[in-house]
Amino acid sequence: MQQNGVRMGYFLSISLLLSSILYFFASNWPLMVREQKIGVSVAILVLFYLLSYGLRFIKRHSFLSNWLLVAGGLAFGISMALLGQIYNSHADSYMLFVVWLIPNLLFAIFTRYQPFYVISYVLAHLAIYFFLHPSVIHVAREDEWWFMMFWLITLGNMVLFWLTSTGKLHSKPIYYLSFLTFSVSLFGSSFTEVYGPLPELLYVLTGGILFVTFLKWVPSRGFLIVTASLLSLFVLVNFISYMVKYFSEGFFVLMLLLTVLIVWGAVAGINWLRKESAHQKSKWVVFFQEAFTVLVTTIAASIGAISIAGLLFLIMEEETVIDLLFFLSLIGFIGPVVFMRGMNATVRYTLLTMGYILGVGSVLFLEGAYWIIFLLVLLYVWKAVSAIPARLLTQLTFLVVLAAKLDEYLPSFEYVLMIIFATQLALHYVKQLPVILQNSSLVYALLSLLLLTEEGFQSGSMNVGVNLAFFAVSTYLLYRTLHQQNKARFGIVLGFWFAFLLMKYYDMLWSLLHKSLSLLLLSLVFFIVALWWDRRAKIEWPKSEPSLFMRKALVLLPVILLQFALSGYQVWSSETILANGKTVKLELVPIDPRSLLQGDYVRLGYTISTLDHEQVDSGDKIRVVLRQQANGLHSYSGFYELNGRWNRAYDPQPSDVIINGSTIGGHQVEYGIESYFVPEGTGLEVERNAKYAIVKIGEKGDAILESLSNQ
C-alpha cells in the first residue's frame, strides 16, 4: 500500500505541475516578451524529456520515467498553444489539436503505452469537435453535411470498438470510450432533418442490432443498459416533438393507452421469456430483463406522467390540477408500489417513476408543508423498498426536492450545498448501506462541494477556504480509497479531482497567474512528501519492466525531435511573415471570451470578412484582394480568386495585397486573424479602445495579426 501512496504522490505532483504551466501560459503575463515566452516553452519541453531520459536507469521508478514522457507529450501541446497565443492564431483551432495529436499518436503506436492511446483518442476527438464547432467563427453548414459527419464519427468509433473487442488493439479505455462516442454520435444523427424518416429509421435499426448484440451475441450488461437508455431517450424526445405538434385531449388519451400497452407488453414478453428459458442457465435472460426494465420504465413513466398532467391541465383549472397531481402521485402511484409487494418489477418501477415525476412536478409549485410530506414519504419508501434501483431513484428525487425547496427558505444556495454535502458524506460512511448507495452518496457529496466552489462568496477568504476545502477533502479521499483498494470510489474521486482543476481555469474570481503559482507550490509539496515517504519507508519495489526510454529510445528520440521541428517551423514561418510581410490596417469589431488552452482573447470581426453581393459555399480556399483607401485602411476590393478562378477580370494595382482565407458560407470569409490574445482581465479594456488591426501579410498570402490600435 505504501507503494501506491508514493506513486499517487508523484502522479499528483506531475498533474499539478502541468496544470500550473497551462495556467501560467494562459495568463499571458505582460512582463514576458515574445522571445522569453518561446524560450520558456522550449525549456519546459526539454526539461520533461531530460528528466524522463535521466530516470530511465532507476528500475524501481520506471513508472516515473514513463509518466514524465507522457507529461512531455502533453507539454508539447501546451507549448504549441502558447505559440498560437504569441502569434494570435485561431483560439482553440482544430489544427492545434491535429499537430498535438501527431507525436502522441506516434508515441502510442511505437510504445503501446495506454496513456498515449487515451491522449491520442481525446486529441483526435477535440480536433473533430473544434473542426465542427469553431470557437471564433460560425460556419454555415447544411443538414446533409452534419448527417454525414455524425455517421463518419460513428463508423470510425465502431471500427475502434471492434478492434479493441476482438483483441486486435489492446486498450480497455479505448474500448469503453469508442462505445460511448459511437452511441452518442449515432443518437445525434437521428435528429438531423434530412432524407425524410431515414435518420430515425437508421438509428432504430442500428440501435436494435446493438441491443441484440449486447444481449445475446456479445453479452454485456453495461452496454445493453446504455443502448436501452438511449433508445428510450430517442422515443421520449420524439414523443415531446409530437406532443408540441398535436397538443390535445385526444392525443394525451391515446398516449395513456399507449403507456398501458407498453407496460403490459413488456410484462407479457418477460414472462414468456422466463418460461421459454427456464431450462437454460445463461445470464442473457437476466441482462434482457434489466435492460428492458430500464427501457420500458423510462419510456412508459415519462409518457404516462406527461400525458396525465397534460390531460388534466386541459380539462381542469391550474390550481386544482397541481393539488390533484400531488395527491395522485402519493395515492395512485407511490402507495401501490410500497404496499403491493408482489407487483411485477417492470410495473413497480414504472409506477414509482411516474409517481416521482408527478410528485416533484407538483410539489415544486405548492406552498406550505407539502414538500415536507413528500420528503417523509420518500424516506418511508427508502426504508420499505430495499431494491437498489428504487433506492437510487428515491435518493435522487429526495435531493432534487430538498435542494429546490431549501433554496426558497435559506438566505443563499450555498447553505443548501453545504447541507447536501454534509448529509451525503455522512451517508457515504454508513457501513450498513449497499456499496452502490455508498458510492452514489459520495458522488452527490463531491458534486455539491464542487458546485460550492463555483458559487462566488462575497468574502475573498471564504472563496479561498472553500476551494482549499475541496482540494483537501478530495485529496484525502484519493489516498483513502487507494488504501482501501476500492477502484470504483477511487475513480469517482479522481474524476472530481481533475474536474476541479479544469473548472478553476474558468473561475474568474482568482487570476490565472495566482492559480498557477498556487498549483506550482502544491506540486512541490506533493513531490517532496512523496520523495520523503519513498526514502523513509524503504519500500521494496517489485520488479518491473524497464522504462519506455530503455526499451524504445531509438524510436522515441525521432518523435521528440519531430516536436521541436514542428515548434521551430511554427516560429520560423510566423517570424518570417512578421519581418517581411506587408503591413495593412483593417477595421474591426471585437468581443471577449476565453480559450480552452490559450487564455483570454478578443474575437475580431472585419469588414473584409463580408464579400458584398457574393454567395459562397463553406469550406473552400479563397484569395481576396485588399486595396488601400484614401484614409490608409485596406478594404475588400471586389476581387477574389476561388478554386483557381477569379470572380471577374482582375487588374492589379500597386497598393493591392492578396490575403488567403476560407469561405464559411453566405457572404463570409475567415482569414485566421479573428482572435487577439490579451493579458488576463484586459479584454474589456481592449474591446472599448481597439478600432483597427495591424496585420502582416506574407508573399504567399498568409496573415498574422500583429497588434490592435485605436487610431
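The record above closes out task 2.4. Task 2.5 opens with a second protein, given below.
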Amino acid sequence: MSEADGGPGEGADEEDGKGAGGGPPDAPGGGTGRGGWAHRLALPRFEPTPLGLIAIGLAAMFATLLVIQAALGTFRPGGPADEPSAPPATGTPPEGTARILVVGDSIVQGSSGDFTWRYRLWRHLERSGVDADLVGPNDDMLDVNTGRPGDDRYADPDFDTDHAGVWGATTEEAAAALGEYVAEYDPHYLLFMAGANDFAEGSTPAWALEAVRDAVTTARVADGDVQIVLGQVTPVAGTGRDEELNDKARTFNEGLEELAAELSGPVPVTVARTAEGYDPESDNWDTTHPNARGELKIAAAFADALADPLRLGEPYRRPLPDVAVGPRQAPEVEVEDEGGGEVRLSWEPVPGATRYEVRQRRVRPDPDDEVALPAQVAGGDGETRTATVDRLLSGAEYEFTVRPYKGDDAGHGSDPARVEVDPDPPGAPDRLRISGADGDAPELVWEEAEGAGHYEVLRREMECRGPSPPPSPSEPSGSPDQDGSEEEPECDPVDDEGPGEGDGWSTAAIVDDGTSWPLPEVRDGGYEYAVRSHRDYVAGGYSGTVEYTG
C-alpha cells in the first residue's frame, strides 16, 4: 500500500508501522452516506462468570463506602484543616508486555473494511517500542451491509484485534461486564470510549457521566491498579439533530475532564481529547463513525494520553499524516457484451463498500470524456454485484471502471474493463429498385436489412456517349435520324464492380428512417446506385446496383 492508501511509507505507516494509513442496516448512520443516527443493535444478554460476580460484589461494597464517606466527611485524626494538594498522579508503565483493554461502542468496534483506531494505536505503540497486548472478549467488527457482528475483514488484519467494543452500546451497557473483563484479562490500562448512543436515545450528559463514574468504580474494585483513559464523544454531522447531539457531547466532554480529575488518585484517570480538532464532515464516513482520518485523530488522542501522564509510549507526532479514505480494496470487474447495445458488468463485493459507482468512457471511435452513470449499485450482503449498461453504440469500444464507496468516501477504483459493443454487422439490403411509374417522382427503394439502424446511399457517375452527330446536307431528307426527337446518351458502368471494389463510388445520402430515397433529376448522363446497411458504427453489407439516367 502506498502513503495515500494508509499503507507502508509515510502517512499512517510512519506512525502505525505497516499502514499509512450509508451505514449498516439497523445501526447508527444507516443507509449509504449520511443518514439516521439513533438506531442500535440489540445487545447480547450478559451472564456473569463467578469472577464477574465477585467483582460486582466488591464494586457494590466500595460504592457503599463512598456513600458513607460522603455523609460523614473526610476523617482527619488532627492537624491543620488545610493541607497542600498532592502533585498530579503519573502512570507506572509495566515491565514487559502492557495489557490494554479497549471498551466502548461502535467507534471502538468498527465495521467492514476499517483499519479501526485500535489498529492505528497498536501500530503507534509498536513503533514507540511498547510491547502492547490488546485484550478483550471480541476480535470482530460489524458487517456494514447486513448489520450483523462477526466481520473479520479488516483493512489490515495484521495486528492484535482483541477488544470489548459493541456496536450500539450506551455507556451503561459498555460498562456492564467491565468488572468481569478486568478480573479476567488483568489489564494494566483501560481505554473507555462511549456516550454517543446515550445522546441518540435521549439521555442527558449527566446520566452518561454517572455511568462512566460507575464504570471507573467497577474497574477499580476489580483491580485498584488499573490505569484508565476516558475518551471524549466525537461530534456528528447530517443526523438532522446535529445541534442537539453536539451540544450534549460538548457538555459531556467538559464534565469528563472534571470527573477524571475527581476520580484520579495515586493511580491516575485521564482523558483522551478525541473531540479536539475532529471535523465530522471530513472525519466520518457516515453521520457518526470515523473514516481513516477520524481513526487517526482518535488514536493520536489516546496515544497522547497514554504518553502523558501515564508514561506509556510516545505522543503521536504532529502534524498528523494525510491518509486515504474509503474502501481500500479495488473491485475486479468483468464485462460481457449482451447484444442490442447492452453490456453487463460484474464484480465481487469489496469489504466496507456500501455502494458502487460505475463510470463509462468511449475509447473509439470519437473518444469522449469519462462520466459517472446515474444509477448506483448497493453494497449487498456478499452476492456478486452486477450492473447492466444500455443505449451503447454498436461497433464502439467502451471502457468501464467501478469505484466503491463507504458512505460518502470514495475508495480505490477498479482497473478499466474494455468491450466492443455489438460488433456483428447487419445484413445487406435486398431488392434494390427504382419506383415511380405513372408519373410519380422516381425513388430508390429497397427491403429492410436485419439488424440495420440506418442506410447509406452510394452512387457513381456512368460513362456516357452523346447522340450521333446530325446528318450532312447531302443526306436525303426524311431519314430515320431526322424525325425531330432528341436522342438519349448511351451510358455504361465504369466497371463491373460494386461499392467497396469498384472505383468512383461516393456517399449520396444517409437514410435514418425508412427504406427509400427520392432520386434527383438527371439532365445529362446517368448514375449507378447501391445501398449499404449500418448500425451505429458497424457497417453492414451492400445491395446490388441499379442504373438511372433520368
